Amino acid sequence: MKRSMCRVTRSTTVLVAAALFCMTVIFGSPLIAKAQTGSTTPKPKVSEAGRVEVRINELHSKLKITAAQEEQWNKVAEVMRENAAAMDPLIKARQEKENTLNAVEDLKSYAAITDAHATGLNKFIPVFEALYSGMSDEQKKIADSLFTKHVQKKLSKKK
Fold it and tell me: How many domains does the chain have?
């Protein structure tokens, strides 16, 4: 009984970490950066698709994905790409209009991004969970560390 509770707790922790990680990767960067700097000067914009490809390659390497895990990894990577493709036009539209949006329009734009993000997380979690369940203990420790450190890093930048 105690062992199964431990597994449930660990699974829940991993899912929460995965959700937070995805939120920061997909959602946080462009919006938080604007809020923190308060700058209205245009910066070179990197698309979500470009950003996600870097992240996919980075995670593949750091998680030490094996040949046997490649098929499941490809599913994870595809969902990450689909999520970025859904988010990219919403973020670009918001960035293009950032100096002209009134408060209500800004909130609606933010809500559209948040809705797309939640939808993306709901697609990401099951495929990542399937990959995670097939990982070695070493890979799981790496994943736990990567996701937790990534979230902590994003949160510490807010302070």
Answer: 1
Torsion of CA 52, 136, 151, 19, to 10 degrees: 70
Each residue of 57-114: pLDDT tens digit?
Answer: 999 999 999 999 999 999 999 999 999 999 989 999 999 998 899 999 999 999 999 9
CA gyration radius, the chain:
17
How far apart CA 132 and CA 151 sit, in angstroms, is 18
Q: Is 39 helix (H, G, I), strand (E, B) or coil?
A: coil
For 25, the domain range is 2-39+46-158
Whether residue 134 contacts residue 72, with contact meaning beta carbons closer than 8 Å, is answered with yes
50 backbone dihedrals φ, ψ, rounded to 5°: -65, -40
